[in-house]
Amino acid sequence: GQQVMQIPQYQHVQEGEDFTTYCNSSTTLSNIQWYKQRPGGHPVFLIQLVKSGEVKKQKRLTFQFGEAKKNSSLHITATQTTDVGTYFCAGPMNNYGQNFVFGPGTRLSVLP
Amino acid sequence: DGGITQSPKYLFRKEGQNVTLSCEQNLNHDAMYWYRQDPGQGLRLIYYSQIVNDFQKGDIAEGYSVSREKKESFPLTVTSAQKNPTAFYLCASSISQSLSHEQYFGPGTRLTVT
Fold first, then answer.
1. Looking at CA atoms only, how far is residue A51 from chain B in angstroms?
2. Among A31, A53, A75, B43, which is most exposed with the fewest C-beta within 10 angstroms?
3. How confident is the model at residue B2 (pLDDT cuts 50, 70, 90)?
């Protein structure tokens, strides 16, 4: 079945440093979604990417969808303590399925 | 104030007991989902429902059951057949099950079975 992988599993950064998490799929994706889960909280939708090579920005967050639509990345510039949490990517299970499969997530810690 | 509610936030049960987790949404969403999250892990799909009176098994449905008698409600029963029921359970909904729609998550229920 379709698999979604993320690296790294954990990342510790000093406040102000940049952070990137990578999402890779075993199959081509029609789109990809990113979610953020704060410690003790629930996942919150961040963004969806649909087009090959698409780049979207949300303030200090930059999301990119690979040209082959098999990978994606989330980059945070100048991290802040409010960025702490786990970032998940989610891709459609398959071309016929109606559900997303979530990656294992990257847990970000920001040291003040 | 629209959203998804799950209750209770924390739930403790003895092994061998069935337990039902509540999930209610007032977003008028057609699709609803149940996920399980274990410590340090991602989300695994248990069951999903596209419309009232219809639901499908996800990746880890064994030991769980659901119902969808109302559009707003999608309760999950963790049965005694579930081998490792202790986990964080998340309910979600989306406008439809189209792959272009985001999922809205409830606050979750932490179930501990001893």
1. 12
2. A53
3. low
Put simply, the answer to whether A92 touches B99 (Cβ < 8 Å) is yes
Handedness of CA A71, A77, A78, A81 (dihedral sign): negative
Distances (CA, A) of B18 to A69, B38, B51: 43, 19, 25
d(CA B17, CA B38): 20
* Beta-carbon contacts below 8 Å between A and B: 49
Edge-to-edge strand ranges of the sheet holding A55-58:
A4-7, A19-25, A71-76, A61-65, A55-58
- Distance from CA of residue B8 to its chain's centroid? 12
- Which pLDDT belongs to residue A95? 55
Residue length of chain A: 112
